[in-house]
Amino acid sequence: MNVNIQTRNFNPKEDLIDFSHKRLEKLLKFHDGIVKVELILKIENSSEKTNKFAEIDVRIPGEQIVVKKQCKSFEEAIDNASNAVERLLIKHKEKAKSMV
Fold first, then answer.
1. Which residue in 24, 58, 91, 95 has the most C-beta neighbors within 10 A?
2. Is residue 77 helix, strand or coil?
3. How many CA atoms lie within 13 A of 61 on its CB side?
4. What is the residue-wise DSSP string for 10-39?
């Protein structure tokens, strides 16, 4: 699985990069056909506290899953987006099994 992390409007700390890689590696438990995972982290300049965005783009053969979450911290946004991706991967895998 190829993991690519992009950041916009800030420079990430090493802890955030490590957390991101560990969290995204867990996606392999839910679907073994993942080809590529792209994570985009960005901060929007606003007065709101929930100005941190995480977008996860997962490529599996024949399909692309994209989830975007906005939270107070990047860790929370990554966690919420990863949970949503996990649910979608499970749904996709069950759908594929029922078609066989």
1. 58
2. helix
3. 5
4. S---HHHHHHHHHHHHGGGGT-TT--EEEE
CA 17/CA 37 separation, integer angstroms: 14
SS3 46: coil
| Rounded Cα gap, residues 33 and 68, in angstroms | 21
What string of pLDDT tens digits covers the 100 residues of the chain? 889 999 998 999 999 999 999 999 999 999 888 999 999 999 988 777 889 999 999 999 889 999 999 999 999 999 999 999 999 999 988 887 887 6
pTM over 0.85: yes
Q: In what side-by-side order are the strands of the sheet with 36-43?
A: 2-8, 36-43, 52-60, 63-71
What distance in Å separates the CA atoms of residue 96 and residue 53, rounded to the nearest whole number? 31
